[in-house]
Write a structure and sequence with these properties.
The protein has 13 helices and eight strands. By secondary structure, it is α/β, with parallel strands linked by helices. It has one domain: 3-Layer(aba) Sandwich (Rossmann fold). It has an eight-stranded mixed sheet with strand order 3-4-2-5-1-6-7-8, sandwiched between helices. The N and C termini lie far apart (50 Å).
Length: 285
């Protein structure tokens, strides 16, 4: 009888483990060239270094460069898993500290072409991605169907902007579309390339006032990433700056953002990896 009770407890533990739900965070921007992918890669590495299990899903179909920033050149993507029946492990790239990178490739825009059998097979293969704590979705920049689709799929939205007026205008336009399609009623904001904390906070306050007054979307200031020469040097070396220059200002800023994320109790957490992709299939079909 005791053995049976132990076995039941073990089964309950296995079931609980299998349904482990990561925090799925979409990180996007209103325009290109604001350093989004660089922030995503370095944030993922910092979270992983802090003991979390992190995967980046490179959902920038046309210009994804997370792999380049990590010093890799992927041969395969989600497209190959679905169309060529490859295993997830063959496509996944393992980066520094054990961070996983799943290149989306053109597969993410061809969802409507997938047969029911292909979808089911792909979802089953995702069991290999259990026990993740975070999935960071790096979308393309701007306002288009794929970006809005990924925003709809995730539990948490982070908008990255810089203090430049054009960047803020484009970020506002993105949130205006989010409001129009009723995708989210709140988002977090990172101010990139800030000269100092004062500029970052002032930029956020102005942006927040406009967004709340006109769109009624509640924003939260997640932090800033400093304008840092070491960051540019790291990009040219094709190495993440948190590894090449761990003591630089930008790396310290990323660490603060990661600490803030870890310290939050996300009420939205509750979607498994399989659940996320099922939602993605339904939205993009």
């Amino acid at each position: 009888m005791l053995d049976q009770a132990d076995r039941l407890r073990q089964l309950v533990g296995e079931k609980s483990s299998a349904s482990h739900a990561p925090r799925i965070i979409t990180i996007t921007s209103g325009k290109g060239g604001v350093g989004k992918s660089n922030v995503v890669v370095n944030l993922a590495l910092t979270l992983q270094k802090m003991g979390k299990k992190v995967m980046i899903f490179d959902a920038d179909v046309g210009m994804g460069n997370d792999d380049v920033l990590m010093g890799f050149l992927p041969r395969f993507s989600v497209y190959d898993v679905i169309y060529k029946d490859m295993d997830i492990e063959e496509v996944l790239i393992e980066g520094p500290y054990g961070v996983k990178l799943l290149p989306g490739g053109s597969g993410v825009t061809k969802v409507e072409e997938f047969s029911e059998k292909q979808r089911e097979r792909f979802i089953n293969k995702l069991t290999k991605l259990e026990h993740l704590d975070y999935i960071l979705m790096d979308t393309g920049a701007g306002i288009n169907r794929s970006v809005l689709g990924f925003i709809a799929c995730c539990e948490e939205l982070v908008v990255l902007t810089t203090p430049e007026p054009t960047s803020l205008t484009d970020a506002y336009s993105l949130l205006k579309a989010v409001k129009h399609f009723k995708l989210k009623d709140r988002a977090k904001v990172i101010i990139n390339r800030a000269i100092n904390e004062e500029e970052a906070e002032q930029t956020y306050r102005k942006f927040n006032n406009a967004v709340y007054n006109f769109l009624k979307i509640r924003l939260e200031y997640l932090g800033k990433v400093s304008e840092d020469r070491k960051l540019l040097m790291a990009v040219r070396q094709q190495k993440p700056f948190v590894i090449s220059y761990p003591s630089c200002d930008a790396a310290k800023d990323i660490e603060k953002i990661a600490t803030t994320l870890i310290g939050e109790n996300s009420k939205d957490k509750g979607t498994t990896v399989q659940g996320f992709f099922k939602k993605m299939f339904s939205i993009f079909s």
